[in-house]
Design goal:
12 strands; binds pyridoxal-5'-phosphate
Length: 390
């Protein structure tokens, strides 16, 4: 089996598994006051310190969540509610047009149910967020902006975003800035410094599914989404999953400590893959920024093909990849990311993301290109016969 879908989820690192097993062998709820509870609490707080040190924030700025989706929802809804409290006209929510659905759908929900005025910041044809467009949008009426959310790097086409410039524009106007860094941590240098909130997820960087964090300064007001025991600064109630937290923290720390070698090896494999795919299928079009992209990401459009057909034919040949984000795969719609970049609907539908990770070898790329020309030919024939039949 050739796994080229590490951006959907990647394997757990051995240090993270070891940390999880150690914690799993211990009894104790970190909220309990007795010795076992205090031992569990120590694991949580040491983990919090590891995450904070790796991502340049204070331990008190790490709020553990049940993953990236929850952290994005907490940032969007929690900050919006806080900012709007007492200021009903401060209801503009500005998000880039290429956000993950965890941000997009949360923003759309706010528009439908909480009177938010949602505005999209455009991107260029490489998928790079337009800083000047954000400036113009904010400056139309800075007082009415509740928050801005722009991702650190795009999960589909891999384009790295001008986060420092976007942050500077928001800071100029005192507007809270959230960034979804789920795909970036462990691949690019990420620091929470200066941002109001940053989303991190465990299973993209060698940790487990179902755990993540929102990095948010204490000065950032966040109205909780769920209520209960008052854990995590009363912002995110729920018994803390100690083994997952230990695993997550070890994975974050390890992926950041080894980022140079990780990124270099991902980049080497990714570049080999791009060259090999172009050699095997000269009509393939590389999407996203050719230089400023995630080290592990290669994203192509194959003219005349349906992405789902390509994916299934590759899968039948033991090659696993994605039509884009795993979270939207299975929904037969062209990617909103590619459409925002100006790619035609037809081309957008014929796209595949290959993402490398720990363990990807040249043999995986050889296996891909051994079958790709035939797969593309068959998908194209199927695609064409389907459109002729319509
Ligand atoms: N944000 C981005 C950019 C992602 O790629 C993903 C997952 O694909 C998420 C958020 C959701 O994270 P999680 O799977 O931890 O809920």
């Amino acid at each position: 089996m050739t796994y080229l879908d590490h951006a959907a989820t990647t394997s757990m690192s051995p240090v993270a598994i070891a940390a999880m097993l150690d914690a799993a062998n211990e009894l104790g709820n970190p909220s309990s006051l007795h010795a076992s509870g205090r031992r569990a609490r120590r694991v949580v707080e040491e983990s919090r310190e590891l995450v904070a040190a790796a991502l340049g924030v204070r331990p008190s700025e790490v709020i553990f969540t049940g993953g990236g989706t929850e952290a994005d929802n907490l940032a969007l809804k929690g900050v919006y509610w806080h900012r709007r409290n007492g200021f009903p006209d401060r209801n503009r929510v500005l998000v880039s047009a290429i956000e993950h659905h965890a941000v997009l759908d949360a923003a759309e929900w706010l528009a439908e149910h909480e009177a938010a005025r949602l505005e999209f910041v455009p991107v260029d044809q490489l998928g790079r967020i337009d800083v000047e467009a954000l400036r113009t949008t904010i400056e139309a009426d800075p007082e009415s902006v509740a928050l801005v959310s722009c991702m650190w790097a795009n999960n589909e086409v891999g384009t790295v975003q001008p986060v420092a410039e976007l942050l500077a524009v928001c800071a100029e106007h005192g507007v809270p800035f959230h960034s979804d860094a789920v795909q970036a941590v462990g691949q690019l240098p990420v620091s929470g410094v200066g941002l109001s909130a940053v989303t991190v997820s465990g299973h993209k960087l060698g940790g487990p599914m179902g755990i993540g964090a929102l990095l948010a300064g204490r000065e950032v007001g966040i109205v909780p989404l769920q209520h209960g025991g008052g854990q995590e600064r009363k912002v995110r109630s729920g018994t803390l999953p100690v083994p997952l937290i230990a695993n997550f923290a070890a994975a974050v720390s390890d992926s950041v400590a080894t980022i140079d070698e990780r990124a270099a090896s991902f980049r080497t494999m990714r570049d080999e893959l791009i060259t090999a795919v172009r050699g095997a299928v000269p009509s393939a079009i590389l999407n996203g920024d050719p230089v400023d992209r995630l080290p592990n990401n290669a994203h192509f459009s194959f003219p005349g093909c349906e992405g789902d057909a390509l994916l299934l034919l590759l899968d039948a040949n033991g090659i696993e990849c994605s039509t884009g984000s795993a979270c939207t795969a299975g929904v037969p719609q062209p990617s909103h990311v590619l459409l925002a970049m100006g790619v035609s609907e037809e081309l957008a539908r014929g796209s595949l993301r290959f993402s490398v990770g720990v363990g990807t070898a040249m043999s995986d790329i050889d296996a891909l290109v051994a079958v790709l020309p035939d797969v593309v030919e068959r998908a194209r024939a199927a695609g064409l016969s389907r459109s002729v039949g319509r």
